[in-house]
Amino acid sequence: MTAIEFRDCLTQLGLTQTEAARLLEVDPRTVRRWADGNGTDIPGPAEHALRAWLELQRRGLPWQPGDDAAEQIAPHRAHAIELYELLLRVDKRGGPSDAWDIDLERGQATLGPIKVSFYKLTNGGFSPSFYRRSDGHPDLKRDWPLIEDAFACIAKAFAEQRRIKFVFAVTLQNGNVLLWDVQKVPTIVLKVPCSAIRKALCRGIDVTDEQCRLLVDCNKNLICEIAETMYAAKRCEIREDKIRVMDVNVSDLATIADRFSLTVLDITPVWVGEGVTRQSRRRRGAGT
């Protein structure tokens, strides 16, 4: 992880260097050296924790300890890394093989005769408790892929419960695409510079500001993911009129680049053709 990537991680997580030092349990001067990039390598454990936190935050899952007790920092960090690695393994298999029935109130996931129990953590997350089968003797090694699937389904249910739903209207203003939440008062605005869209998402294609607005509008679900992540990290500026503004940067957009669709640029709207046709007819009529 480079110094630039490290600083981007802190920005996306909404962490100051002091907070990062506390959560990584290193000296603040060490974090400053990592951020300055003065030749100090960022060790693997710290990088692994940062990438785990970023991925959990992207999925809408809590990753910070629920309290300030120093003795809880290391266990929460280890738990976040374990959950991150588990979710990646499930993703690599193509996702859960079956849809588990999740009961968040009872702390239970069920798939036929198999039940996996869990309990809620103080930070809003969860931790596994035990599993059992009603159709025979439980075998942890045999059933482990199924249990991992259960954890992935539980994580998704927790994320859905925590998710802040945005309903955005998209406008264009002064070289920025603005997404205004139409339900919240005071409103929340996501500000996406057109220059950042071109750099992170357009893959060398030359696009106008209006096309940037159209691209954002057609990929609104992905932009909402960024909004949810930024809001969870409290990355917003509260103006005097109470409007909360979240400024999106290139690094934020890079997290969705591989899923961002540009196909709308290949479509000619029907009304453009109709407009040309009507205009041609009026010209022909005027000339006869």
Characterise the protein shown here.
The strands form 2 sheets. This protein has a 5-stranded mixed β-sheet. A 4-stranded antiparallel β-sheet has the order 1-2-3-4, with helices on one face. Helix 2 crosses helix 3 (28-36) and helix 4 crosses helix 5 (73-92). The protein has 288 residues and is an alpha+beta fold. Strand 6 (176-181) and strand 7 (188-193) form a beta hairpin. It is globular, with a radius of gyration of 24 Å. It has 11 helices and 9 strands. It has 3 domains: 3-92, no CATH class; 101-162, no CATH class; 168-272, no CATH class.
Q: What is shown here, in short?
A:
With 288 residues, this protein is an alpha+beta fold.
Radius of gyration: 24 Å
Summarize the amount of helix as a percent range: 40-55%
Strand content bin = 15-25%
Question: How would a crystallographer describe the biggest sheet?
Answer: 5 strands, mixed
Instruction: State the strand order across the main sheet.
Output: 5-6-7-9-8
Provide the structure class: alpha+beta
Question: Which overall shape is indicated by the principal axes computed on the Cα atoms?
Answer: globular
Order of helices and strands: HHHHHEEEEHEEEHHHEEHH
β-strand number: 9
> Segments where pLDDT lies below 50 for 5+ residues?
273-288
**How many individual helices?**
11
Average per-residue pLDDT, rounded, comes to 87
Distance between the termini: 71 Å
Tally of structural domains:
3
Protein traits:
288 residues, alpha+beta, 3 domains, 5-stranded mixed β-sheet, 4-stranded antiparallel β-sheet, 9 strands, 16% strand, globular, disordered C terminus
